Amino acid sequence: MTAGVLTVPSAPLAAAAQVCLGVAGLLADVAVAAALEPEGWAGAGALADGSARAGLVNALRRRQDVVTGVSTAMRVLALAVDEAQAQVATGKGLAATAGLLLDDDGAPQPVRITIEPGVDLHAAGVGRAQVLAARAQLAAADAAVARTLGELLQPATVSGNAIGAAALEAAASAPAPPGADTSSLAVASWWAGLLGLQRAALLRRMPEALGRLNGLPAGVRDAANRTLLANALETVDGRLGRLQALLGPGPARGPLEAERRHLRTRRAVLVGVQAAIALAGRTLLFLDPRGDGRAEVAVGDVEHAHALGLLVPGMSNELDELPGIVTDAATVQRAAGAGSAVVAWLGYDAPRVRQVPSSDQAVSGAALLDADVRGLRASRFALADAPAERPRVTVVGHSYGSVLSGVAAARGAPVDDVVVVGSPGIGSHRAGDLPQGAAHVWAARAASDPIRFVFDVHRFGGVPGHLPTQHSWFGPDPAQRAFGGQRFLVGAGVTGHVRYFEPGTTSVANIGRVVAGRYSDVKR
Question: How many domains, in total, are found in the chain?
């Protein structure tokens, strides 16, 4: 039945469902009328009539349940047909952007299409997978509805409403989300092949799994992570309420009071995250409220932006610092201009002061950043209006975040430009060592930034390795001409270590120009 259903409109199914619903309403009205007792009638005849009317009412209500169940099943199938037809069309269109024509069965056609420059050829495979998955999901929904209709036609059928609900649940059932080691392209293909009912069911049941899954559309991850945030706040409020009942309103001491202070602090952090994503155009791409916490918030339309930036903060940044990082990301996004989006990327466990000389957090964080960039690119394949060209990507690292950014670029993360400010080194000896090339490695440092002292080996006599002059633990100074990259001005308004992203500064204007790809406008 699936092949035929894919080529016909769903309107007749929806109309049949509406007719059945009308019939069910008429049966309900007749049942109500039949249940009325004639006034003033008593005796044996009245008793016999009452018994007969009770039987008639029960029969009418059973038929009402059956017709309601049929209506529900028809609505499920109509919705499944609409979803499948839309996804098949999207999959065929996506494959066509990469030069592959498909029929409704997902079979390639012997026709050659000119491929536009810059198109990601993965789109062909993802588009075909989407067509095949849509057909499979429609077949599953069709089978579930057929079983329901068969059961409704049995003489001893159970309640039609119960069976209709079962049909909806069967149509909404979906395989468990892919594991964390699944490629983002495979995740995008899996999501693209699900029906709307299945997607909604997964968002209800498994927000934590979806919220961290690279390859899903940004809007899906945002919905899942906002649910996680609400759940975390509800849990903290519940624990606070129980402690308050134990301790009372007055001051207290001991472990319970310490726990209450901890919960109040934790609640303030979560409320801060809530405030950071409250403005329009903010997308919560990732949230892990455990421990110090991690999060990623996009400013701008991350799904359709042609220029995408990721702002990586430095040491000691925890979830309570997220609002400030999001503010910096918003400033960079405004500087980059229309068609851009910037992610406040607190997606790694930032080191504390004593951990800074180690590259461990940079190496582990670089792998996470690499996966996230690939996930953001792949997620576009699951969109009905997916842009044909991949976005240009710039990673912007501040302080220790620049170490992570350099390591991510060196390991092959698909980024076009690397921008570092206030950097203690990026793990490479020369700008040209990175795959992006020296023309796409940008650095700046304020004259008064104390980070400059880490490059003076004589001030760190205990540092192992006999580092040469102008080297830190993480390599030579990227802001020096000898490093070979592109240097840009920060302007007089930037002093110290943390003001590179302040609005109105030459620094943030230049960073925005690099993110947007307006290289000739960068002030050097």
Answer: 2
Dmax of the chain from CA atoms?
Answer: 114
Write out pLDDT tens, residues 202-219.
888 889 999 999 999 999
Give the contacts of 290 (CB within 8 A, at least 6 positions apart).
Answer: none
Residue 274 lies in a domain: no
Regarding beta strands 471-472 and 475-476, do their DSSP bridges make them parallel or antiparallel, or are they unpaired? antiparallel
443 falls within a domain: yes
Q: Are residues 361 and 466 in the same domain?
A: yes
Enter the tokens of residue 193.
């092949």
Please indicate whether residue 283 or residue 7 has the higher confidence score (pLDDT): 283
- Picking from 442, 445, 444, the residue whose alpha carbon sits closest to that of residue 516 is 442
Question: pTM here?
Answer: 0.70
Indicate whether 200 and 286 sit together in one domain. Answer: no
Give the CB-side neighbour count of residue 346, counting CA atoms within 13 A: 27
Q: What pLDDT digit, counting tens, does each position of 38-87 carry?
A: 555 555 554 555 566 566 666 666 776 677 767 666 666 666 676 677 66
Q: Is there a single domain that holds both residue 199 and residue 315?
A: no
* Domain contains 500: yes
Report the CATH number that the domain containing residue 363 is assigned in CATH: 3.40.50.1820
pLDDT digits (tens, 9 = 90+) for 401-416: 999 999 999 999 999 9
| Domain boundary pick from 160, 187, 205 | 205
Give yes or no for a contact between 386 and 94, defined as CB atoms under 8 angstroms apart.
yes
The DSSP 8-state label assigned to residue 354 in this structure reads: G
- Decide: 185 and 215 in contact? Cβ < 8 Å: yes
Residues of the domain holding 12: 2-205
User: Which tokens is 475 given?
Assistant: 């390599």
CB 512 within 8 A of CB 304: no
